[in-house]
Amino acid sequence: MKTTLKQIGIILLFSGVISFLANSVHPRKIPWVQDWSNQVEAKAKAQKINVISLAVALDKFQAADTVFIDARPEAEYAKGHIPGALSIPIQSLEEQFPVIGSLIDSGRDLVIYCRNRDCDDSLLLATELQTMGASTLVLYIDGFDLWKKYGGATSSSPADSEDTVPPAQGIDP
Amino acid sequence: MTRDQKTYRLAYWIASFIIAVTLLSGYHKILYPADFALSVYRFHLLPDMLVNSSALYFLWLEVVCGLCLLFFPRFRVAALWIALVLLVIFTGAIGINLIRGTAFSCGCFSNSPAARPMDWLSVARNGALMALVGLALCGFKHSR
């Protein structure tokens, strides 16, 4: 038993040394201490907004009662977005009040997204919607960039940005 | 073949399986440490200042245990004990997050954002691995 404890100590110590050395020379090395509170995800958690990953967003995309909301500027939305997503850039929030009102009243699940994990427009929009009474919203944190990279469906059709709540997706009559 | 030899052989094969699992689980974490740190952060169990250092330490501890099982027979029992403790810690962390209702992958075998979120199957898988580690430990102990 004493020998095993000694060997455990050696493995623990060696792992510490090798992790230090490996991280020093690693091409993708990370800082030993990082302030995670600056991350959009951490801010969302602090505001009690649920955050979802790409896998869950892809599942929700198939659900009939989910509306995706694109918080990026109009120009980025026009280049490509998640099919059926509404464009509500945070800069033009006031113009979209009628749409937002009908969205909240519809009681459908709202999935708000932005460009990537560092883009906080979606968080700002989620906060506004939460203040306005939306209780079924989640923040898709990985954003449109990863959605596209991992083969999620995309669209550049401007028809999606009509001033109405989009119809349910993924259901064939 | 004596009973002790049979027990040792069984423990050896189980240990080989555990080597494969630890190395398979460790290599993508070594290649992309930032992604693994994000997975550790998403468990929300450690203070921010300990997230990166714990991620870096645990990923190498896992790989070093796998290498000890593979190349250093004298260290096998010690490596298995560490693997068992790591599995208990990871399984506990997954269980806590499932109760909290997380929507993220555990980062156990993949860094991909498209990886399935953790579920009770992850707990069952870890439970099975713990049982195997326990069996290997018993096997090596009896064959000494």
Explain how this protein is built.
The complex is a heterodimer of chains A (173) and B (144). By secondary structure, chain A is an alpha/beta fold. Chain A folds into 2 domains: 1-34; 36-161, Rhodanese-like domain (Oxidized Rhodanese, domain 1). Helix content of chain A is 43%, strand content 11%. Chain A is built from 7 helices and 5 strands, in the order H-H-E-H-E-H-E-H-E-H-E-H. Chain A has helices at residues 2-25, 40-46, 54-62, 74-79, 97-106, 121-131, 143-149; strands at residues 50-52, 66-70, 86-87, 109-113, 137-140. A 5-stranded parallel sheet of chain A has the order 1-5-4-2-3. In chain A, helix 6 links the parallel strand 4 and strand 5 (137-140). Chain A is elongated, with a radius of gyration of 21 Å. The termini of chain A are far apart. The model of chain A is unreliable at 159-164 and 167-173 (pLDDT under 50). By secondary structure, chain B is mostly helical. Chain B has one domain (3-142). Helix content of chain B is 77%, strand content 0%. Chain B has 5 helices and no strands. In chain B, helix 1 packs across helix 3, helix 1 (3-31) crosses helix 5 (120-142) and helix 3 runs antiparallel to helix 4. The radius of gyration of chain B is 16 Å and the shape is elongated. Chain B starts with a helix and ends with a helix. The mean pLDDT of chain B is 88. Chain A binds chain B through residues 4, 7-8, 10-12, 14-16, 18-19, 22-23, 26, 28-37, 39, 41, 45, 50-56, 58, 138, 142, 146, 150, and chain B through 30-34, 37, 41-42, 44, 48-49, 51-53, 55-57, 59-61, 64-65, 68, 74-75, 77-79, 81-82, 103-105, 112-117.
